[in-house]
Amino acid sequence: MCTDGLLGKEFTILGIGRSDGDDETLRASLDKFATEGDCWRDLRKRIAYLQGDFTADRVFDDVAQALGDRSAVFYLATPAQFFGAIVEKLAAKGLMAEAGSRFRRVAIEKPFGHDLASAKALDARILALLPESQIYRLDHFLGKETVQNILVARFANQWFEAVWNNRYIDHVQITAAETVEVGSRGSFYDATGALRDMVPNHLFQLLAMIAMEPPNSFDADAIRDEKAKVLRAIRKPTAVCAVRGQYGKGRVGSRNVPAYRKVPDVAADSRTETYVALKLEVDTWRWAGVPFYLRTGKALAARDTEIVVTFKAVPYALFRDCPIDRLPANRLIFQLQPDESIVLDMLVKKPGPVIKTAGTTLNFTYADHFKLSGRTGYETLLYDMMTGDQTLFQRAEQIEAGWAAVQPILDRWAKGKGRLESYAPGSAGPAGADALLERDGRFWHRIGQ
Fold it and tell me: How confident is the model at residue 70 (pLDDT cuts 50, 70, 90)?
């Protein structure tokens, strides 16, 4: 934001924590993450530190004194169990009161609840004190340029939308694969798992962008209305629509990986999944009959976040003498990370007197066309919070609709039902995930390809 000239002269950062320290302590701890330059030197001077325990009333009095009559965004970088209590104290101390041009907003990062009941309870607790206009439920993934570009690609290009329906699309795959294992996060992860950690937020937001109807404007509420409709339309999955896995001992590249159950703070008999694959359907006219396959996991073969839209095969009448397996369906691939690109698979004729087909791609790569600055996504979201743009933030109904869609799976697993498969680190996941698609005559796009 600073390098883009978007920070006003009054912009300051006030860090609050229980550790002893002062302004310079906080600034020094941030130096290793910053790049040298005029922006950091200027921003560094605007950072201050307030020592205090956010469970005590005194710290909120100190914050009120430090803020005075200025606008503020309260970013809750705390364990999720304190979200409700902090908002209640902010409201009780008058810190959320808005007047004139002064705004007061609160940013809450996932996890927003750990199931449908807890999400509803947290929403009710916060909405009893604040309107939606002051609440920014933050998912940093939505700040990435390539994620936002899904909407532009769909709605700014006529040929996309013309075939964006069940007449032409066979199925959609959404993948968020990581090579990293759980590491030092055993305590958090063993109580969470891959489904809770990734599906109701990251993956469902990508699904909503792919499946939503065109909004009547790019106004925040118009876009969030259409996303909410998609999430509410997800058919409740059955037992055979979910696969879960847990990595064992092995290697990812040159790195040795201990079995998940050997990770510190993980139960020796843990049934927490480090991988999940789902088959979902969206019950709307546009998507009736089109399966959406989702998968995410730790310690996999490659770091890869992508959306693969596979179109229906062309009629074979013209190619009756060609082997069918040489006529693969067209695919549109949104590559979100580590590389940012949009790729369209297509078939062309090989040179020569005989008609033979060959696969090729039309490839748009961000780095080839634009200067990328290595942003994480947080920069966009922080700026949107300060300007009051809620387009990339979820409303309560979206959060609850996401949890409602996966609650039947969570309930089944909580009763000890459902197989937990083991998979090797550095692989594409458990065999059951392949079988999930093979039953439908389909196969996964190769991770990292």
Answer: very high
Helix residue ranges, H only, 22-106? 23-31, 38-44, 57-67, 83-92
pLDDT of amino acid 80: 86
Is 154 within 8 Å of 172 (Cβ atoms)? no
Q: Is 276 exposed, middle or buried (0-12, 13-18, 19+ CB in 10 A)?
A: buried
| pLDDT at position 317 over 60 | no
Task: Return the closest-CA partner of residue 406 out of 270, 226, 204.
Answer: 204
Question: 229 pLDDT exceeds 80?
Answer: yes
Nearest CA to 441 among 318, 279, 332?
279
d(CA 404, CA 110): 16
Average pLDDT over residues 102-107: 95
Contact between 96 and 90 (Cβ < 8 Å) = yes
- Give catalytic residue positions: 202
35-57 average pLDDT score: 83
> How confident is the model at residue 269, as a pLDDT?
95
Rounded to the nearest 5 degrees, what angle is found at the Cα of 115, between the Cα atoms of 131 and 184?
A: 105
Phi, psi of 117 (to 5 degrees): -65, -45
| 278 SS3 class | strand
| Sequence-distant (≥ 6) Cβ neighbours of residue 331 within 8 angstroms | 308, 309, 310, 311, 343, 344, 345, 445
CA distance 87 to 76: 9
